């Protein structure tokens, strides 16, 4: 359902659990769907012995994709979005729990349409931010 | 990266939505499916030269008998809307949606290199950032999505404290 400008207010927040105990197989699944087969995400031996990381880790784009679910759930679908972006601020490892928080910043007019600006923050089980982003979406009057 | 033909297919959208844990029915309606917000990243599948995909008859740097199939340092990657390569990581990703993307669209993607800058990192030594902008256009030449990616190459592996 689309967001209504009259029903949201600045500072309002939404929370969503994005994943609990992230599995290596989900990372493999994302590699297969996205086409990014970088062994750093799926090949434990390469990643620990050659690249020098403690284990494989998730694609930043998997974290952004999971965060995107929260955003589209809030704004009423992918067809409402006009902007979505952010920075990958820390790595996401197998076993991590991720939670997203979205905060309504502003409802405004843009090119004759009503839009809402949202900030998004995805954190792991230790409260470390892994994705810091924003979205803009169309809202109904 | 240049992708000459990126057909937006319902089955591909379904697999992508599953992989990001999104059960929204709009992604599971086959020929009527809408694409998730980060879906254009999977244009990598249609980039012939995308180097983070094993290619038939070519060596691959992941493990087999040995921890790596190639002795030289893997080079940094771009493509697929920006993002990390063998020694590189994905630092930022930004999308602008000019209209909703849906099954049945056929896109082309063209990449323009952006800025490059350096920073001294706290966790990983010297960081070299490079930006690329990918324009995804539809079958009518209309701009559908603009994607700006920033990749970073680190001096040593980034450690989470």
What does this structure look like?
Chain A has helices at residues 24-34, 39-42, 44-50, 60-75; strands at residues 13-19, 81-88, 98-110, 113-123, 129-138. Chain A is α+β, with helices and mostly antiparallel strands. Chain A has a five-stranded antiparallel beta sheet with strand order 1-3-4-5-2, with helices on one face. In chain A, a hairpin with a 5-residue loop joins strand 4 and strand 5. By secondary structure, chain B is mainly beta. In chain B, strands 1-3-4-5-2 form a five-stranded antiparallel beta sheet, with no helix packed on it. In chain B, a hairpin with a 5-residue loop joins strand 4 (126-137) and strand 5. Chain B starts with a strand and ends in a 7-residue tail after the last strand. Residues 74-86 of chain B have low confidence and may be disordered. The chains are: A alpha+beta (141), B mainly beta (161). At the A-B interface, helix 1, helix 2, helix 3, helix 4 and strand 2 of A face helix 1 and strand 2 of B. Strand 2 (81-88) of chain A pairs antiparallel with strand 2 (88-97) of chain B, so a sheet runs across the interface.
User: Order of strands across the widest beta sheet of chain A?
Assistant: 1-3-4-5-2
Count every helix of chain B, treating DSSP H or I runs of 4 or more residues as helices. Answer: 1
In the sheet with the most strands of chain B, the strands line up as 1-3-4-5-2
Number of domains of chain B: 1
What is the H-and-E element order of chain A? EHHHHEEEE
Q: Provide the CATH top-level class of the domain at 5-22 and 59-138 in chain A.
A: Alpha Beta
Largest interface: A-B, 51 and 54 residues
Do you know the CATH topology of chain B? Thiol Ester Dehydrase, Chain A
Q: Count the strands of chain B?
A: 5
Round the mean pLDDT of chain B to the nearest integer and report it.
Answer: 88
The largest sheet of chain B, given as strand count, sense and whether it forms a barrel, is: 5 strands, antiparallel
Percent helix of chain A, as a range, is: 25-40%
Shape of chain B: globular
Identify the CATH class of chain B: Alpha Beta
Portion in beta strands of chain B: 25-35%
CATH superfamily of the domain at 5-22 and 59-138 in chain A: Hotdog Thioesterase
What's the helical proportion of residues of chain B?
Answer: under 10%
Low-pLDDT stretches of chain A are none
Uncertain runs of chain B are 74-86
């Amino acid at each position: 359902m689309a967001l209504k400008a009259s029903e949201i207010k600045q500072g309002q927040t939404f929370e969503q659990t994005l994943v609990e105990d992230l599995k290596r197989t989900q990372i493999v699944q994302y590699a297969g769907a996205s086409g990014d087969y970088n062994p750093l995400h799926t090949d434990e031996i390469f990643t620990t012995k050659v690249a020098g990381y403690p284990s494989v880790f998730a694609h930043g784009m998997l974290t952004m994709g999971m965060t995107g679910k929260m955003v589209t759930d809030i704004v009423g679908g992918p067809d409402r979005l006009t902007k979505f972006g952010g920075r990958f601020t820390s790595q996401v490892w197998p076993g991590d729990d991720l939670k997203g928080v979205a905060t309504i910043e502003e409802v405004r007019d843009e090119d004759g349409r009503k839009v809402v600006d949202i900030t998004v923050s995805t954190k792991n089980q230790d409260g470390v931010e892994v994705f810091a982003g924003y979205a803009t979406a169309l809202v109904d009057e | 990266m240049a992708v000459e033909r990126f057909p937006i297919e319902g089955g591909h959208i379904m697999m992508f939505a599953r992989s990001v844990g999104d059960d929204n029915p709009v992604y599971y309606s086959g020929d009527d499916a809408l694409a998730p917000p980060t879906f254009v990243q999977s244009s990598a599948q249609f980039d012939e030269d995308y180097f983070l995909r094993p290619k038939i008859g070519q060596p691959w740097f992941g493990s087999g008998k040995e921890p790596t199939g190639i002795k030289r340092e893997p080079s940094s990657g771009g493509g697929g809307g920006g993002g990390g390569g063998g020694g590189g990581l994905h630092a930022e990703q930004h999308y602008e949606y000019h209209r909703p993307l849906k099954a049945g669209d056929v896109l082309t993607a063209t990449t323009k290199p952006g800025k490059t800058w350096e920073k001294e990192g706290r966790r990983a030594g010297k960081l070299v950032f490079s930006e690329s902008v990918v324009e995804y256009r539809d079958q009518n030449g209309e701009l559908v999505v603009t994607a700006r990616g920033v990749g970073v190459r680190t001096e040593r592996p980034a450690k989470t404290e």
